[in-house]
Structures are given as C-alpha cells and as structure tokens.
C-alpha cells in the first residue's frame, strides 16, 4: 500500500497529512506558519509538520511514496517566488529541492489554490459536475475553472477570479490594480478597510474579538463570530464582499456556463452554507440565463482540501488541462 | 465536390455565401434585413439571399449539400426565440424547418456569434492559438472561449462576455441588468447614450453623418467616420467602450489565461487594428500576469465570418465542446 504526504502552506498555519488509498487520513499535524525569518524557516516548519503527521500515522517519513505541497506565490519548476503573507519571501526559493533533501522522499509543489481546487474537482464537491468555477475566499480570493472534469490552467496562470474587474476605477487592490473583486472581498483587504472605517469613528466589535482571541489579524473565525453577534460593520462589509464575489462569479458563469460554483477558502468554508446561499442570491441579478442558475456549494473537503490536493501532485493520476500539453505542468512541478 | 451554403442573419443585413472546399467563396449575395413584418418575412429574404448566392455561383440551390444559418436570439432545436433587432420576433419560430422546406436541402441553424467564433477558431485568426477569447463587438457584444482548439459552449449558453459586470450598480444594459460591459460598449447602448448626451446639449456630428448616409441608426461605418473626423463625443464614447471591453477581456484572461483575444463583430472589424491596439493597451492595467499579455487580434474572416461559420454547421467536421457531450449541440441544431 502506497501512502502519500500532503502539506498545505498557508499564511497562518501549515497543515500536513498522511493519506492512504481513497484519501483516507492516516495521520495529521498542524503548525503555526512562522511570522518572522525567511523561506528556510518556513521550510523547516513544513518538514516538522510532515514528520509529526507521519508520527501520528505511526510510520517513518521514508515510507511515504512522495510528498506534495501547496504554496502561495508563483510556483514554477519547484520554486516559489513572491509569496506574500510569508516572512522574507520576496525572492525565489527552491522549496521542492529543499524539502526533498530534508525529507529524503520525492517532493512536488503546486499553487495552493490550484491543488485545493484539484482536490474538490476530483474528490470533493466538484465530483458531480462536468464543469465548475472554484472560488477560494481567504486572505485573497483565488479560484479556477474545471472543464470536462479537469482543471484548466491555460498558459499556467489561470484561476485569478479575485482579479476580475467588478468596478472600473474602483478600490485599490492589494495587487496594486484597481477595482478587482479581491479589493472588496479578500480578508486582507476587508481588514484594512475595517481599520480605516474604525479610524473614521465607526463602531465594531471585530477588533475587540481579535484581542480577546489573542490574534493579530481578523481571522475567518472572528468574522463569523462578529456576524453571529449582529455586528453591523461586519455585516456591511460581508455584504459588500458577497456582492463583489457574486458579480465576478456571475460574469464567469455568463462566459462559461458552468454547472456549479464551488466556494472554498478559509472564509468560504468557515461562513459555509449561509454565505453560499447569499452569494447565489446575489448572482441572480447578473446571470444572463437566469432561469437555470448554477449550483453554489461549499467545498466539501473543508480546510483539509489544500493538503489532500497537494498529495495529488505525487500520485500517478495527477493531471490538469492546458499547459500540461506544452510539457509544463503549470502551477506544479517536480524538484 | 460538395458545396455548402452559409447564411448570416444580422440586424441590418443578410449575407449568404456558397462555399467550396477550403471555404473558397463560389458565390455571394447580400440583402437588407426586413425592418417590418415578422419571422416569415425574414425567412423569405434569407431564402432569396441564398438563391441569389447560388445563382452567383452558377449552381442550383438543390446542388448544395446543406445550408447553415447563424441567427441572433436563442437558438434551440432548429428554432429561434426572442431575436431582438429582428421585426416581430418576440416569440419562437421554427426557422430551420421553414428554410429547409423553402430550399429543399438540409438546413441547420446556430447562434450567430457562436458560428462566427467557430469560423475564426477553425479558419481565421484563432487557428494559431490553442486557447482564445472571442469578443464580437456589434449592436451587442457577444463572444466565447475556445479551449484546446475547440469552442466551449458549457451547458449551451456560454459566451456572454458582453454581460460581464464591469461596474457594480452601473449603467442599465439593454438586457435589463446593471453594469454589464455591453451597457457601455454595445453599439445599441452607445447610440442610446449618444442621443441622451445630444439631448443634454452636447455637440457631435454622429447624427449629421447618419442623415447624410441616409441611415436610421449609427452604423459601424458612421462611428469610424466620426472618429476619423476627430468628433469629440464619438471619441469619448469609443474610449468608454474600449475601457469596458478591456476590463471584461482582462478579467476573462485572468481567469482562463488564454493565449489570444480575437476581436470581431461589426464595430470590431470596422475599427480594426487601431482599436485592437487600444483594447490591448487598456487591458494591461488589469492583467494579473502583465508580463505576458495575450495577443489581441482582429478577426481575419471579416464580415464574411458569420456566413462561413454558419456553413460549418452542415459540414461533417463540425464540433464544439461542452453540451455536445450531452447530445445537445448547443447553440445549433438540425431542423
């Protein structure tokens, strides 16, 4: 029996899994992502997480047939470049090579959102659909499209649904551009906007909840808690985000007429079905074929989807449409 | 040698072609689209145009192996529903059946923009690209996506790039929705907006040119002429349209990372390379991977693309991805 490792490298946490056949979770470990240092420090924590997951599974790391890791930033030929939200990672770091030496087993890396979408397409909410749009709503908003049951990566960079222009000359996005959906919906952008509104004298319990939970940023859990408490500013900002996500998703559906929209990511999974329903409703006024709206569903693999998807990188059946044809497995590559 | 007929039914004109191998044009005829009456009157003009094209080719209509026709409106099972811009066509009309009886040869019909895109993908500007976005800029703005060299039709309704939301709560579109790209860029919407601005006292030669050319609407040629003359209002409105088209196209490229954008349609073809360059430039600030922008090219089949594409409906190799899998050749079907 071959067992595989999967690591999801996030801005807040590192999730490692040991997976058996049919994605059965044999072992799991979670570490905090370092907030200082550099790529080598992050890689060391990834190694620790993978070793802890192996221990949890009762196996040696050397027994893993391979390890896949999903990373933010630009992933190419086993390297990761400009991983925002990770400490000291402005340049390029040979992450796959580094982890392979540290763990002593084959390592492949892929884009975090890309592998999470792949997991949903093949083993999660997307299994029932021949075509779908994935919207991964977290610090940023990533995503992607699956067509005929396979993820479409284009020339390697497909999936940037968060950078759909929903407002000409609109809000400044963290990417520097104007009017992107992420500028309204990304957790990072929402937090910056909330701080600005508070500076202008608006009231909210968001930051009180943050301090109470000993956090230094507005996590998905804090947004969920604030909504439960009926916090008006939080409600206003989530509504603004829902409208932006819905406009971008409806535009993509108008162009591609996919069967479903799969909502994932930290905020998407945490806010779950109620927010999926809100997005579905907010899409309606923008859908050209509004008599047959696509299903809007929450990612079923939840916050393990990233690590499960990463493990698919080292499994034989891994695949994605598009750049693979040119020999370049976009968004993922071996060390 | 099999020869085929192709008819492009537009809001202004009906273009019929007789095509031989390699899409060689053997005969051609053009009629004005009736502005009054109903679907039967339009169908009669289509028949006349096809007969005139056959005469031009020196053949009998009965020698055609088949005739394909592209129509605006919702095309399903050989019928056309709600063809705006065509007289008295609010309901459903069995166009394929009607034409087949009139012409005595097999007839298939498809969506006008869909067949024009198919023509560009297989025989025009799209031939060199494995993936592309088509933007057909005319009275409305239609389009579509080709992936791995095949048009993607989704559940049958893909391609509505004109109904990409580029402005939340923005201008009212002719489709009734708000903030659609077409509300800024469609020739219909532009004309309505120009009339409003003139009513408010703004100056333009657009309507003077219209009367001089004995037209009752602002055709692509009139817009081109006004731009050549340096008409400020025309320039302002084309710039506004270019920005909207560019935002929608860039958003689609961010999501799909296609290799090229093919610009077709009456206005796209008439304004040609200079406007393709403007759209390309206006896309740049919105492209996530701005170091490798897609090519932006004008449709090479020009205003014959619609009729050529329509003829492909009755040729053996006709195909499109998506709904075809479910047995429903979306956007086209036999009588």
Rg on CA atoms of chain A, Å: 19 Å
Major sheet attributes of chain A: 6 strands, mixed
Tell the overall outline of chain A: globular
Approximate helicity band of chain A = 25-40%
Order of helices and strands of chain A: EEEHEEEEHEHEEEHHHHHEHEHE
The CATH first-level class of the largest domain in chain A comes to Alpha Beta
Based on the structure, what is the oligomeric state of the protein chains?
homodimer
Task: Give the CATH topology of the largest domain in chain A.
Answer: Nucleotidyltransferase, domain 5
Class per helix and strand makeup of chain A: alpha/beta
Key structural traits:
335 residues; Nucleotidyltransferase, domain 5; 6-stranded mixed beta sheet; alpha/beta; homodimer; 21% strand; globular; disordered C terminus
Q: What does this entry look like structurally?
A:
Two copies of one chain form a homodimer. The first copy, chain A, has ten helices and 14 strands. Chain A has 335 residues and is of the alpha/beta class. Chain A has a six-stranded mixed sheet with strand order 3-2-1-4-8-14. The longest helix of chain A is centred in the last third of the chain and has 25 residues. Chains A and B meet through β10 and α8 of A and β10 and α8 of B.
């Amino acid at each position: 029996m071959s067992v595989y490792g999967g690591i999801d490298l996030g801005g807040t946490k590192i999730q490692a899994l040991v997976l058996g056949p049919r994605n059965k979770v044999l072992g799991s470990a979670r570490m905090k992502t370092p907030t200082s240092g550099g790529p080598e420090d992050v890689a060391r924590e990834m190694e620790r997480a993978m070793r802890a997951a192996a221990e949890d599974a009762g196996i040696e790391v050397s027994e893993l047939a391979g390890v896949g890791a999903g990373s933010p930033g630009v992933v190419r030929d086993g390297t990761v470049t400009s991983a925002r939200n990770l400490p000291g990672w402005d340049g390029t770091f040979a992450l796959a090579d580094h982890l392979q030496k540290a763990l002593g087993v084959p390592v492949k890396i892929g884009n975090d959102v890309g592998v999470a979408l792949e997991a949903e397409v093949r083993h999660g909410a997307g299994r029932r659909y021949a075509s779908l749009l994935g919207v991964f709503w977290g610090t940023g908003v990533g995503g992607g499209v699956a067509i005929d049951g396979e993820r479409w990566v284009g020339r390697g960079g497909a999936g940037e649904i968060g950078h759909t222009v929903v407002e000409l000359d609109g809000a400044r996005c963290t990417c520097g551009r104007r009017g992107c959906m992420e500028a309204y919906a990304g957790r990072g952008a929402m937090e910056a906007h909330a701080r600005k509104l508070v500076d202008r004298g608006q009231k909210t319990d968001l930051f009180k909840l943050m301090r109470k939970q000993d956090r230094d940023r507005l996590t998905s859990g804090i947004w969920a808690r604030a909504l439960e408490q009926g916090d008006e500013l939080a409600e206003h900002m989530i509504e603004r985000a829902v409208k932006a996500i819905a406009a971008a998703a409806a535009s993509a559906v108008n162009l591609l007429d996919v069967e479903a929209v799969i909502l994932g990511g930290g905020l998407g999974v945490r806010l779950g079905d109620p927010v999926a329903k809100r997005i579905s409703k907010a899409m309606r006024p923008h859908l050209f074929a509004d008599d047959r709206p696509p299903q809007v569903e929450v990612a079923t693999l939840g916050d393990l989807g990233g690590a499960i998807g990463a493990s698919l990188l080292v499994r034989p059946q891994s695949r994605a449409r598009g750049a693979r044809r040119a020999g370049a497995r976009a968004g993922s590559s071996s060390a």
